[in-house]
Design a protein that fits this description.
Layout: H1 2-16, E1 31-36, H2 37-44, H3 47-57, E2 63-69, E3 73-97, E4 101-122, E5 128-152, E6 155-174, H4 181-225, E7 227-228, E8 231-234, E9 242-243, E10 247-252, E11 255-257, E12 281-286, H5 287-299, E13 304-308, H6 309-316, H7 322-332, E14 340-346, E15 351-355, E16 358-371, E17 379-397, E18 400-417, H8 426-458, E19 465-474, E20 477-485, H9 488-498
Antiparallel strand pairs: 1-10, 1-12, 2-3, 3-4, 4-5, 5-6, 7-8, 8-11, 9-10, 12-20, 13-14, 14-16, 15-16, 16-17, 17-18, 19-20
Helix pairs in contact: 1-4, 3-4
């Protein structure tokens, strides 16, 4: 009943939840995902588990009927408690039919069903006999499934209703084969047609149901991956999913969502020609997303940092020179690092642009250094505002995000030092400029790397075996391309938890 209801619901949803797109969908595309045929072939290796789950999870109805027999009168029968006893799959093939469907051919499925056969007949002289016997059905089946991708409620939906079963063998074995030969022949011949219809209906319905559940599962994973507390990315579809001969592709809006922050994007530079087909998986990201995420992080007060104690000492004592010692003495006036604190925060939304040489981050940053003398109130000894521009190259290796700063430019906007109120001594400013460039920026980046790695791992990225990932920057966008191995246990966990 659940599957029949689901199928009716699916038809209604297709009619009522169709997506509408503008005349130029690429112009509002912020994220693109392309999965090439090698990835489809890899995932097809897991098809056997899904098909086995479909067979085992299908709810087969009882089959009843009646037939008149000479001398014996009417013979009534019922097959009850039908369930899969054993199942094996010899071969599965996948083909991407351009602008049509994902075609999956599953060959030589050997399935054994078991249940109970109840039958009775009213013979001559009003003789009535009723019997019950366990049975087993041995079948050999080929499956043909055409999965169409569509947009439903602004997300990718899978329709696997185009499903066919071809029976090469369907044999009924009664318990011990001790029943009369005519009885076995009767039920084998008469039940075969009905049984084939029931198996096809229920198995195909379950496959379609699983395809929908899997599509929703993938969407939920992706949606969760681009969400952290109050900041998230809208991955609603910007156009209908594509099926090409060598790849599958989906285009998403990629708008950042944060409280009352309004994100608008209408000038995407995406074109299908920007991606190739040599790797298994591609992600295309507009620089607009990075800019919007930085703005949301700023509004959420995440771009703030406090440094004290040994960490502060490591920054100011990067080198042991007379100029360094003099600058430190003037700034801290002999106060211990343990009684000092530095606060760093962004004064405005960082500006991010993606260029061939890397991701360029431009930010107006404030730094305040205060000392906490014993039994005295906090005293601000240094305050400065500076515009920092740094170019960063990113990589991913050994399940960690790596950020490498290439070059940086620092321009002081405000500089107030208690030890040099008239700003006549350039040594402090020169020292701080060198310190920020050599140690300060790498220190900030070293905080960001593990934070982002931890965030991605909390979303399950570390569970995937990613091979040879590349993060490529071009003017206005980033391409992430990689090969991968599918973690078998994820599918098993999914099938166990969802079914």
């Amino acid at each position: 009943m659940r599957l029949r209801t689901f199928r009716i619901f699916l038809v209604l949803v297709h009619v009522s939840a169709a997506c509408e797109f503008g005349p130029f969908p690429y112009s509002v595309t912020g994220i693109v995902c392309r999965m090439t045929k090698p990835a489809a072939l890899l995932l097809n290796q897991e098809t056997a588990q899904v098909i086995q789950a479909a067979f085992r999870n299908a709810k087969f109805p009882n089959i009843t009927g009646e037939r008149s027999m000479r001398l014996l009168g009417k013979v009534a029968y019922g097959l009850t408690n039908i369930q899969v006893n054993d199942l094996s799959i010899e071969q599965s093939e996948v083909e991407l039919k351009e602008n049509d469907a994902i075609h999956i051919a599953i060959k030589n499925v050997t399935a054994f069903f078991k249940g109970t056969l109840n039958y009775g007949y009213a013979g001559a002289w009003f003789l009535q006999l009723f019997h019950s016997v366990d049975f087993e059905i041995e079948s050999s089946i080929d499956l043909q499934i055409n999965i169409k991708l569509m947009c439903q409620k602004d997300q990718v939906a899978a329709d696997a209703s185009d499903c066919y079963l071809t029976f090469h063998k369907l044999t009924l074995h009664l318990q011990g084969d001790k029943e009369p030969g005519w009885l076995k022949q009767l039920f084998t011949d008469f039940i075969s047609f009905t049984l084939k219809f029931v198996l096809k209906s229920e198995v195909c319905n379950e496959i379609n149901f699983l395809a929908q559940v899997l599509a929703n599962f993938v969407h939920d994973l992706a949606e969760n991956f681009v969400r952290d507390e109050g900041i998230s990315v809208d991955i609603s579809l910007a156009s209908v999913p594509l099926i090409k001969a060598n790849y599958l592709e989906s285009h998403h809006k990629g708008l950042v969502l944060y409280k009352n922050y309004s994100d608008v994007f209408t000038d995407s530079v995406f074109s299908p020609s920007l991606l190739t087909e040599s790797r298994m998986l591609y992600f295309w990201l507009s620089e607009h997303i990075l800019n919007s995420l930085a703005s949301a992080a700023f509004l959420d007060k995440r771009l703030e940092l406090t440094i004290r104690g040994e960490e502060l000492q490591a920054l100011f004592e990067m080198e042991d020179t007379e100029a360094q010692r003099n600058a430190v003495q003037m700034i801290f006036q002999g106060t211990s690092y343990n009684n000092s604190v530095a606060k760093v925060w962004s004064l405005a939304h960082p500006q991010i642009s993606v260029q061939p040489e890397g991701t360029v981050v431009k930010s107006l940053v404030a730094v305040e250094v205060s000392t906490l003398p014993v039994k005295e109130e906090s005293l601000m000894v240094l305050y400065m505002e500076k515009e920092i521009t740094v170019t960063i190259q990113a990589a991913y290796a050994e399940k960690k995000l790596i950020l490498h700063p290439l070059d940086s430019r620092i321009e002081f906007k405000v500089f107030n030092c208690t030890a040099d109120p008239s700003e006549n001594d350039p040594s402090i400013r020169n020292f701080l400029q060198t310190m920020i460039s050599v140690v300060g920026i790498p220190e900030v980046i070293s905080r960001i790397e593990p934070a982002l790695t931890s965030l991605m791992n909390s979303k399950g990225l570390h569970l995937f075996e990613i091979r040879n990932p590349e993060i490529i920057t071009r003017k206005g966008y980033i391409i992430v391309q990689l090969d991968f191995s599918f973690p078998n246990h994820l599918l098993l966990d999914f099938l166990q938890n969802r079914l």
